[in-house]
DNA sequence: GAAGATCCTTACAAAATCAC
DNA sequence: GTGATTTTGTAAGGATCTTC
């Protein structure tokens, strides 16, 4: 900000920084007397530097505006009056001494009585960085500014709004001095950083400095070599997940320095903390009532327009939009225009005409081309209310087109999923039908499956007696039944390899006859969890104890009758374990093979 | 009947638990 | 503490089935 411009802004009568709207009114002599009166009052207040309240520029979700601020050189800064904060003129400023008179002036511009409630004395001042703190009513539906006492804290009994409750976490706005931050930036070599980026070659595309709008500003007469431009950004965030309290920083990013420097030299202009969205506040000419309607679009509040889904919401043209039915309600849509040219583009001249029309209507609630009143940003020098706006990336793109595309994709996926679910249900029905057939067959031929091992061994006995192979366990079983048990027996605690294999084969045959691979692969001998099983899965259930005892008894009987040996029952256990292991391995092998086939099919 | 694929059996190792 | 037991995994080889 140049020293000259800054001084002009600080010490002039304020007319040069009036909004175009007010200047226009001045030119047309519609309200010449009242405006002059206002200017006179405000200028006095500014020179006394008693208030910074008008400097608070609250924006709302994900809005970005471009404005041009004349800069000061390093040298100029030392000659500049060191204000506590940078003063941007506002028609709402008033001194605390002539409160009543100022209230009348404010009411001429904005009928919102809430604006009358704020005075500089209602700020809590900080000794560090000259931060001002403005307390706002914590009530959800009230944006009244709390009057503060001598200690800087809100007094309990408030003239307007609700009484201050010091047991509740307060809502407040921190107003940080922009000028002081800007000085720090310049003291840190800001001018040098600017010179580094002032080498646009006309061909290389960048994020900001190669933009047409930016180049137009830079190449125009309104800027000087030491001019800095800013992007204004604001968005809100919760302090932590599920917190009712959030904070909304209003920040300025200096365009005219390298990207990394932009991130390290951001200007924090104001900070809202509270359990609700930030009020337009006494610093802006937006009514509190309209602010209550604000649900997402800060841009509309701070530029004083309708909401994003309102009529003529496009920031760049006068497309009014069309109402379409959505569900049980309706919504405004902006279909692609088929005519060419489509709709006239917005211009600053048309914007001023709209503001004039509004002033004639004197009805704040009626919007003209979605404009309800002059934007407070118009008070900024060289601020183009139309060109300064950039597309609302968050709401127009992320929550607009992209959201629709994602939803469309999700719907396709959901339809596909429903088809698969239906096919799966048909397969399940088929399986259920086959199971019923199997059950029916079992019932008509009960000898196919035994209900217990004991019952099965009885059936097995009947079958074995019809076989003639002496080496089979079946015949051995028959043999063991017919052998004279009075012969002397040999007690065996270990078996040689040949007999061990024979025992394994006998047990394999018995188990194969009575259980399928699913049952055997899903049971272990004892039901204990495998030491090598690191998963959290439960251990396999134990094999039925009575069945183990039956097999052991049968094997012992067989050995006794076949080989005239009394075997140690513990010799049977490894054979059972080995069989269960083989089925387990086989099942795993099949599953692995199927998985590989599925992978191959999918590829 | 030969060749290949698939399944089963066996041996061995690792790790944890249990009984002594 | 030590050895036995149990469970699981891997690898190798054999048995069985399928195809030609």
Describe this structure in words.
There is one protein chain. This protein is 42% helix and 10% strand. By secondary structure, it is of the alpha+beta class. Strands 1, 2, 3, 4, 5, 6, 7 and 8 form an 8-stranded antiparallel sheet that branches. Strands 9-10 form a two-stranded antiparallel ribbon. A two-stranded parallel sheet has the order 11-12. A hairpin with a 2-residue loop joins β9 and β10. α15 (473-482) packs across α18 and α16 (497-514) crosses α19 (572-602). The two termini are 64 Å apart. It binds a DNA duplex (20 and 20 nucleotides) through residues 501, 504, 508, 524-526, 528-533, 539-540, 573, 577-586, 588-590, 593. One of its GO terms (cellular component) is nucleus. Residues 88-109 are annotated as: Disordered.
Topology of this protein?
Elements: H1 3-11, H2 20-27, H3 32-48, E1 63-69, H4 74-79, H5 99-109, E2 123-125, E3 132-136, E4 171-175, H6 178-187, H7 190-197, H8 212-219, E5 228-234, E6 237-238, E7 246-254, H9 259-264, E8 267-274, H10 288-293, H11 298-302, E9 322-326, E10 329-333, H12 348-361, H13 393-444, H14 453-464, H15 473-482, E11 490-492, H16 497-514, H17 517-521, H18 545-562, E12 565-567, H19 572-602
Parallel strand pairs: 11-12
Antiparallel strand pairs: 1-5, 2-3, 3-4, 4-8, 5-7, 6-7, 7-8, 9-10
The chain binds a DNA duplex (20 and 20 nucleotides) through residues 501, 504, 508, 524-526, 528-533, 539-540, 573, 577-586, 588-590, 593.
Overview in brief:
By secondary structure, this protein is an alpha+beta fold. It has two domains: 3-285, no CATH class; 450-602, Orthogonal Bundle (Arc Repressor Mutant, subunit A).
